[in-house]
Amino acid sequence: MSNSPQSDTVSIALTGAGGAGVVTAGQMLLEAAATAGLYGLMARSSGPQIRGGESAAFVRMGPRTVTNLADAFDIHIAFDWLNVERFAAEIPLDPHSVVICDPSAGAVPEVIENSGARIVPVPLKDLTKEIPGGRVNMVGLGALANLIGLPEGTMASTLKKILRRKGEEALKASNAGVQAGRQAVAEMGVVRALTLPDKPPQTERWSITGNEAAGMGAVRGGVRFVAAYPITPATEVLEWLAPNLEKIGGLLVQAEDELASINMAIGGSFGGVPSLTATSGPGLALMMESIGLALTSETPVVVVDVMRGGPSTGIPTKSEQSDLNIALYGLHGDAPHIVTAANSVADCLFTTQWTVHLAEAMQTVGLVLSDQSLGQTRTIVDRPADEPFQAQRLVAEAPLENYRRYAVTDSGVSPMAIPGTPGGEYVADGLEHSPIGRPSSQTEDHMAQLDKRLRKILLHEYGDHWAEITGADAPETVIVTFGSSTGPVREAAEEATAWGLKVKVVSLRLLMPAQTTKFEEAIAGADRLLVVEQTHSRQFYRYLRAYYDLPRDVRVLNRPGPLPIRPGEVLSMLKEWS
After folding, report:
1. What domains can you pick out in the chain, each with its CATH number?
2. How far is CA 265 from the centre of its chain?
3. Most CB within 10 Å of its CB: which of 27, 264, 269, 452?
4. 3-class SS at 392?
5. Counting Cβ atoms within 10 Å, is residue 57 exposed (0-12), middle (13-18) or buried (19+)?
6. 562 to 39, 66, 86: CA distances (angstroms)
7. CB-based contacts of 243, cutoff 8 Å, min separation 6
8. 144, 147, 84: which is closest to 113 by C-alpha?
9. What is the pLDDT of residues 403-442, one digit of tens each?
10. Strands across the sheet with 528-533, in order?
11. How far is the C-alpha of 502 from the C-alpha of 70, rounded, in Å?
């Protein structure tokens, strides 16, 4: 086996019609991997339909942290061939791959045959019919467990844990299905062995999605009021927050639309409660005018944007990083604000928590960029560290005399009176204003307030959290990326290092304000710079060109969704270039 970072992991694709239990089987497989002491992730994909139709689950497991999909799948199990062509590009196969399929589903699609993968027919549905209460996904799960060497005891304990609430009959049928699947492929043996740990994990591990992590980050940061309208793929942020906010005395309101959502969140914050909303691209576009109101009135608020394919309704169920431009530049007028980007599923927790802290400390708007790939992917990770970042707002204390809400201060931050504070009355609206809050069209007031709003985000000390930097200290090539592109980039850099290349990875977490000096220090000495992003128009590259001095030799690897960037693509470019 090679020393490639992919050599110790196993990658599996599961596809089928809605109701076949594809995602459920994928989740059980991931849970079983965790029970066995492994790390892993499960990404999911579906077509454009709201309900039903075809779906897919992509699982990758191994003895180390897994943050992205591999270059190709070791095993593809197809419960049927319903519209599998829609997923074909998302399921890279090669001659080393094995495809398990039911002969009753008809001929193997040409796109699968052309991959060169080994096709193995297994009568999944016929086996299922022999089991009272049986389900085809459990038979498939058993086949997969056998093919990757997952112990029988591990699979049995996982089923018991997940299905105990469904009763003894459901558990019995599922166990029977798993055993039938194992026996059906027993002669094949183990085709891609998992590297199982010798002893149980020494650290606590979590099973979490990016959307759940963002919700937890909000709560840890101090958010106690959320107003939002459901939108794919951000809805799970709200589903996690609704019950958990209630447990700690907070509140979530489902508004009638995105306009109401952002305005309610601003109102909650104006009342003194750290507030947040979550949305995706179309919702963010609707919120822009109100975000400008929050910025001008210096009312802190956080917006989590789980990006998807655009423009307009675009591709709601697929991932893309193309909301970058609207997040950076979507506000009218000169409107300095905070834009951050989580670079892994687990990092959605830290980045959201940190952004709540930043928005509250600077009394401004914080936009958190996630995407469908991060938000709806479930991973097994080590328990994230407890971070100290909390909402800490500079509040005006009573009694107040001659209160100047927008007083021009050296830091750019002025004390904010909470409604009801004696002497703390002021006007908070979208009009430009004087230091006391009175609407003003005077040049001196406009200039002073523009400078104030800019100064507070430029003078803030962001520390080392502005980016995550890994790799060589004296690199020949620096790869600059952000968000969900970080995982495959880091994996490619690890393999490039094994090839003897000197590569550094700079994954930006703080996009606005730009950290010019720190960035220049991070890329110092590099002859080449590779920019990797999931957009069509090279939005991230153009952002870098606008704010930073780049080396003379720059290349860009960019592609829109729904296909993710793969580690092999990045590695191939590095090899060719060097």
Report:
1. 10-188 (3.40.920.10), 207-382 (3.40.50.970), 463-577 (3.40.50.920)
2. 22
3. 269
4. coil
5. buried
6. 25, 20, 11
7. none
8. 84
9. 999 999 999 999 999 999 999 999 999 999 999 999 999 9
10. 467-471, 503-508, 477-482, 528-533, 553-558
11. 22
Contact predicate 427/410, CB 8 Å: no
Q: How far, CA to CA in Å, does 540 sit from each of 281, 326, 478, 556?
A: 17, 12, 15, 10
478 pairs with which residues across the strands?
504, 529
pLDDT band at 82 (very low <50, low <70, confident <90, very high): confident
CB 225 within 8 A of CB 301: no
Q: Which residues pair with 480 in a beta bridge?
A: 506, 531
Q: What is the 3-state secondary structure (H, E, C) of 108-127?
A: CCHHHHCCCCEEEECCHHHH
Bridge-partner residues for 400, per DSSP?
none
E strand or H helix that includes residue 380: strand 378-382
Residue carrying the six token digits 């980045």: 351
Q: 183 to each of 32, 123, 139, 160, how far by Cα in Å?
A: 19, 12, 10, 20
Provide the Cα torsion 234, 236, 237, 238; round to 10°: 100
DSSP classification of residue 416? B
What is the tens place of the pLDDT at every residue in 39-78?
999 999 887 665 667 889 999 999 999 999 999 999 999 9
Which residue, chain included where needed, has tokens 């523009």?
450
Which among 386, 387, 384 has a CA at the least distance from the CA of 203?
Answer: 384
CA-wise closest residue to 372 among 429, 424, 423, 304? 304
Question: Which candidate, 124, 123, 116, 114, places its Cα nearest to that of 97?
Answer: 116
Report field, pTM of the whole predicted structure over 0.90:
yes
